[in-house]
Design brief:
Blueprint lengths: L2 E4 L2 E3 L5 E7 L8 E7 L6 E7 L4 E3 L7 E6 L4 E6 L8 E9 L2 E4 L3 E5 L2
Parallel strand pairs: 2-11
Antiparallel strand pairs: 1-3, 3-8, 4-5, 4-9, 5-6, 7-8, 9-10, 9-11
């Protein structure tokens, strides 16, 4: 399965973006799907997780601002990002786990700047 992330861009502080992660195959069998981010000089951060049956979890830094969702019919996962801050600037990666197997998409750059 290949994952393709999109939707990044340049946005002003306080703005919104919606990231998409399209899978080349069915996502219904994945145990979890996740969004990670990597900012310059920082460690990779797990941003959000959505499990197969829809339960979600978020990093404290994005709680209340970001929402992860999945559409099994479209084989896609989304990350709605609101109230963006400069510290959200990073390359965002989507990821899927199936048992011990991990699948990664290429990143999409999100830049929050005035």
């Amino acid at each position: 399965v290949q994952l393709q992330a999109s939707g990044g861009g340049l946005v002003q502080p306080g703005g919104s973006l919606r990231l998409s992660c399209a899978a080349s195959g069915s996502i219904s069998s994945f145990d979890t799907m996740r969004w990670y981010r990597l900012a310059p000089g920082k460690q990779r951060e797990l941003v959000a997780i959505i499990a197969r049956f829809g339960s979600t979890n978020y990093a404290d830094s994005v709680k209340g601002r970001f929402t992860i969702s999945r559409d099994n019919a479209r084989n896609a996962v989304y990350l709605q990002m609101n109230s963006l801050k400069p510290e959200d600037t990073a390359v965002y990666y989507c990821n899927a786990y199936q048992g011990e197997n991990a699948y990664w998409g290429q990143g999409t750059q999100v830049t929050v700047s005035s």
